[in-house]
Amino acid sequence: MKKFKWMIGIIIILVIGFLGFKLAKSVHINMEQNQQLQNNQNQIAETQKKEAEAKHKFAVSIAEPSIKVYKKNHQVLPSIVVAQAIQESNWGTSALYKKANNIFGIKGHYKGQSIRYYTDEYVSNDTQTPKGAKIVREGDQKKVSVPATFRKYPSILEAIENHDRVIALNFIKKKNVSSYVEQAKMLQENGYATDPNYSKSLINLIRQYNLEKYDDKAVNG
Question: Does domain 50-94+154-220 have CATH number 3.90.650.10?
Answer without folding.
Answer: no
